[in-house]
Write a structure and sequence with these properties.
Layout lengths: L9 H12 L5 E6 L10 H10 L2 E7 L3 H13 L4 E5 L11 H13 L6 E6 L2 H4 L3 H21 L3 E4 L4 H8 L6 E3 L6 H9 L3 E4 L7 H9 L5 E3 L21 H11 L4 H15 L1 H6 L2
Parallel strand pairs: 1-2, 2-3, 3-4, 4-5, 5-6, 6-7, 7-8
Helix pairs in contact: 4-6, 10-11
The chain binds zinc ion.
Length: 286
């Protein structure tokens, strides 16, 4: 019988063309706070350094009205590079006045075409520490943010420190797509949020935290994004480094190691995930 020659599968062809052309991977920092004082006067340099490392887009998150306005200004000066996400952070929520909250809600509605997402919003029981009043207000503010995101048709970047189940359950009745930034909760909660179609972000802590390595290991590559959450400081190999988007390639490298995949494959998947969740990222990379 004549032997049939098997054609290489598409994956193999892609690998061969990657080797020949060697395109540099594109990276995205999907969660940073550029309005923070730590970056004052340094944004140009930080973005230039990021670009040299292949980080083409950063999503700048805010915490209250003032940082939302500042974030919008920074994004306007760096079109297609800095995409804004605005909202009220769970640490700002317990103290926020109704008027300021209303202004943030209005700003989301007015600027929805410019926004990548509503963020950073969410819940944090480690912050409210059993203070029932603070917890009640944090939940009310989170619901306002979810409602604003649903109305604007925007995804939500959620903070869920020691509250991942609560964030998941409180948001269940809204038609919003979500990314759980720096997911550090239990694996059984992770499985529920992944089953519901949510994404997670992984940051520099994956390089030294066993739990975050496990979280990344349990998450399909089709649901992972990368972040620095700058200016948050990290331990391990980043101990003496300023946190900037230039750290992202190291995060992708570690995810690739955990997932036993190639750096190129992981970087490409993450860009694809960001394009799927954030319409503005998709536009910026067209
Ligand atoms: Zn953050």
């Amino acid at each position: 019988m004549k032997k049939v020659k098997i054609k290489p599968q598409k994956r193999e062809v892609d690998k061969i063309s990657l080797k020949r052309g060697k395109p540099e991977p594109t990276y995205i920092d999907s969660h940073i706070h550029l309005s923070d004082e730590a970056y004052q006067g340094k944004i140009e340099a930080v973005l230039e350094q990021a670009e040299r490392e292949g980080v083409r887009i950063v999503i700048a998150n805010s915490e209250d009205l003032e940082t939302s306005l500042k974030t919008l200004r920074i994004a306007e000066s760096h079109p297609l590079k800095v995409l804004p996400a605005i909202g009220v952070h769970p640490w700002a929520a317990p103290e926020i006045e109704a008027e300021e909250l209303g202004e943030v809600v209005e700003l989301i509605a007015r600027c929805k075409g410019k926004l990548a997402a509503v963020g950073e919003v969410g819940l944090d029981t480690a912050y409210t520490r059993g203070n029932l009043e603070a917890w009640k207000r944090q939940r009310e503010v989170f619901h306002s943010m979810l409602e604003a995101a649903e109305k604007a048709g925007l995804p939500v970047i959620a903070h869920s420190r020691r509250s991942s189940l609560e964030v998941f359950e409180e948001s269940a009745s809204y038609r919003v797509k979500m990314v759980f930034h720096w997911f550090s909760g239990e694996i059984k909660v992770l499985k529920r949020i992944l089953d519901a179609g949510c994404y997670i972000t992984v940051g520099p802590s994956i390089c030294y935290s066993r739990h975050i390595q496990r979280v990344a290991g349990e998450t399909p590559l089709s649901r992972v994004m990368t972040e620095t959450d700058g200016p948050v400081k990290y331990k391990g190999p980043f101990q003496n480094l300023e946190t900037t988007p230039a750290l992202i390639p190291k995060v992708v490298e570690k995810i690739a190691e955990v997932k036993r995949s190639s750096l190129e494959e992981v970087a490409a998947q993450i860009v694809g995930n960001c394009r799927r969740l954030f319409a503005r990222v998709n536009e910026a990379l067209e």
